[in-house]
Amino acid sequence: MSELSPRDSIRHGFGQRRSLSRRQYTIGELAKIFEVTPRTIRFYEQEGLLTPERRGRTRVYHEKDRVRLKLTLRGKRLGFSLAEIREVVQLYDQAPDGDERQLQLLLDILGEKREAMQQQLEDIRILQRELDEVETRCRESLALLEEARGKR
Amino acid sequence: MSELSPRDSIRHGFGQRRSLSRRQYTIGELAKIFEVTPRTIRFYEQEGLLTPERRGRTRVYHEKDRVRLKLTLRGKRLGFSLAEIREVVQLYDQAPDGDERQLQLLLDILGEKREAMQQQLEDIRILQRELDEVETRCRESLALLEEARGKR
DNA sequence: GATCAGCTTGACGTTAACGTAAAGTAGACC
DNA sequence: GGTCTACTTTACGTTAACGTCAAGCTGATC
Question: Which CATH fold topology does B1-7+17-97 show?
Answer without folding.
Answer: Multidrug-efflux Transporter Regulator; Chain: A; Domain 2 (1.10.1660)
